[in-house]
Amino acid sequence: MATPGASALHLHITCCSTQCPPSIANSFSGASLLLKNPSFFFQRRRNLRGLLRAFDSESDDNMGFNSGISGVAEESKLVKDVEYPSGDFVYREYDLLENMLVKFKMLVAFPWERVKKGSVLTIKLRGEISDQLKSRFSSGLSLPQICENFVKAAYDPRISGVYLQIEPLSIGWGKAEEIRRHVLDFKKSGKFVVGYTSVCGLEKYYIGSACDELYAPPSAYFQLFGLAVEASFLGGVLEKIGIEPQVQRIGKYKSTGDRIARKNISNENREMLMVLLDNIFENWVEKVSVDRGKKKEDILAFINDGVYEVERLKEERWITDIKYDDEVTTMLKERLSIPSSKNLPTVDYRKYSRVRKWTLGMTGYKDQIAILRASGAITRVQGPLLSPSSGIVAEQFIEKIRKAKDSKNYKAVVICINSPGGDALASDLMWREIKLLAASKPVVASMSDVAASGGYYMAMAAQTIVAETLTLTGSIGVVTGKFSLERLYEKIGFNKEIISRGRYAELTAAEQRPFRPDEAELFAKSAEKAYRSFRDKAAASRSMPVEKMEEVAQGRVWTGNDAASRGLVDAIGGLSRAIAIAKVKANFSPDEQVTLVELSKPSTSLPEILSGVGSFLGVVESAFRTWIEITESPSAIQARMDRFMPQPLEGSSFANLVANLVKEFFTSL
Fold first, then answer.
1. What is the pLDDT of residue 396?
2. Is the pLDDT of residue 159 over 90?
């Protein structure tokens, strides 16, 4: 039973951000008694669960307790808020002493950390945004550094505001949500965020709508027409040239392999994609309606009207005004009382990324939480042609996990995951190491764009899983297969003979013929065993009966929100919430500050330096990596999710079309 008055207790407690000064806090509701005495809290949670189970009956014996359900619900919310704090950003002005300390640190800072007072931080969001930290030799943008720059700028007295230029982006909805959240958090400092875009689709507008003001030139190209997802299939092409893909998928929703094995979309895949598309579109409409102060019905009507005229966008308050970039700059100069003869003082993203948190009083705390970042496809070992930043290499990531486990300095670990999966064995090996890590200290998984199949395999070893609303996750299933080139060899006159010993010695070596019935049976049993292992471990990790896990597995992909409602995820939010939860799990007091330690340091290797030459090298590297995976282990069981990114359909060149088909061919294996 609840302690009298417990359900009526509503205290506002601030839990300071793990990477920021006292002025940044994570806000959540809870009772100080629960926080000061963790054993009391967990005992109360066990009692509460038992009480809730008692109400899970329709017998007349329980009818008399209905009056207590509301109190139990309130206590349940209280327990959840304490266990899973929101991590919301709370801005507080520096006090006099803090101001003096920061100014002193600025005086002794390195020359490259000097920023002119009244400067505007300019950030150009363009192209792909990496999940990893970037070295100063690297090209492109880094999500951790973008977010950190927003936080630093909020407290930097030299920064007057942010000018966010949004250009064509290639990111998922998880990253878009994280950037959008930091834009909204920055606005709490009272400084302005002005957005500018000349080419804008739904995902770009999702970020831009969070700005105080959004401008576009008269010739801007807006495509607020809706979302679409497309699937291409090579089954017919391979059939014509004499290649027979023999793919074994476990899970009726597991679509990886469909691109090479099928000629059209399956009913199960169509059902899954429609639900995902609905969730993403509905979330967009809901968030934009709040930002723009419009009704959802008006948002939908506007989209269905196919509006592209910039003048109408201004009339209906989708943008603030129609201005060229130089006109926006002139406007900012007037706003900051800068003479027209002088330039607007600015500091760009790259230079501001070199300003240390120490300079702004945001580090140096005793207790530490380690941050591990894992992004890209999963492989077991690093190939000779691959750079250190190419995907998730199990042997390297395991070293970092063990380092975090062995260090007494790290009181908790947050693992940031953005991966569609890959090698099933590599995923299992990392799962084991994360499980051992979680036995020694709190571990929280934070999901970004996607953490599915092998990516979810890693996450489920953590004690708590946090996902963005639109993170693509789940996909608990496996796929494996090989090509039979029998008809192709006949067409070109090629012959291959194999001499073997052992009934199944030619199982994966004999690509010149299809499987024999007994080989096909063994192949299927191997895949089924791998699936059962994945599913059963997921069930155990999530404290869920295997039968119930089977209902949400079957290779199905869920959004973060749907995954949370089905027990695959614990809380919805970004990295800040994951850190707040890690603090509570580590028994930190609400006002205690900690230092975040990045264990995934940016590489300064020669491939990393040369990557700045152009994105083409990255494409070539990706092709080599995929080819090496295929040639080294053609029959390796994969825990991989098919690529999925709903977006406005745009025209593309024939060369891009061919390149995409080739890329899809390899990534489907």
1. 93
2. yes
Tens digits of per-residue pLDDT, 584-626? 999 987 667 889 999 987 655 555 445 444 444 444 455 444 4
587 φ/ψ angles, rounded to the nearest 5 degrees: 65, 35
Told to judge if 600 belongs to the known catalytic residues of this protein, a careful annotator would answer: no
Contact call for residues 431 and 535 (beta carbons, < 8 A): no
Whether the per-residue pLDDT at 651 is higher than 80: the answer is no
Q: Quick one: tokens of 4?
A: 């009298």
Q: What is the spatial distance between Cα 437 and Cα 449, in angstroms, rounded to a whole number?
A: 24
Whether the CB-CB separation of 391 and 377 falls below 8 Å is answered with yes
Q: Angle of helix 173-187 relative to helix 267-292, nearest 10 degrees?
A: 10
The CA-to-CA distance between both ends of the chain, in Å, stands at 55
**Owner of token pair 């927003």:** 150
Q: Where are the beta strands (DSSP E) in 360-502?
A: 368-375, 378-379, 392-393, 410-419, 421-423, 443-452, 464-467, 472-474, 478-484
Q: From 553, 563, 558, 548, select the one nearest 531 (Cα to Cα).
A: 553
- Which amino acid appears at position 327 of this protein? E
pLDDT higher than threshold 90 for residue 664? no
Which has the closest alpha carbon to 484: 505, 512, 509?
512
The gap from C-alpha 469 to its chain's centroid, in whole angstroms, comes to 10
Q: Spell out the residues 6+ positions from residue 402 whose beta carbon is closer than 8 angstroms to its own.
A: 433
Pairwise CA distance, residues 215 & 217, whole Å: 7
pLDDT in tens, 314-334: 999 999 999 999 999 999 999
Instruction: Mark 599-608 as b/e (b = at least 16 C-beta within 10 Å).
Output: bbebbeeebb
- The β-bridge partners of 213 are 194
Q: What share of the chain is helix, strand, coil (3-state, %, to 5)?
A: 45, 20, 35
In three-state secondary structure terms, 483 is: strand
CA-to-CA separations, 521 to 97, 248, 399, 518, 526, in angstroms, rounded: 73, 10, 37, 5, 9
Three-state DSSP class for 221? strand
The two tokens of residue 617 are 């090298």
Query: Tokens standing for 124?
Result: 């150009």
Amino acid at 394: A
Among 483, 508, 481, 513, CA closest to 496: 513
Q: Can you give the pLDDT at residue 14? A: 34
86, 389, 453, 541: which one is catalytic?
453
Look-up of token digits 């995934």: 600
Q: Which of 172-181, 294-303, 346-355, 636-645 has the lowest mean pLDDT?
A: 636-645
CA distances from 351 to 111, 136, 155, 164 (A): 11, 9, 17, 15
This prediction has a pTM of 0.81
User: At 611, which amino acid appears?
Assistant: S
Residues in the chain, total: 669
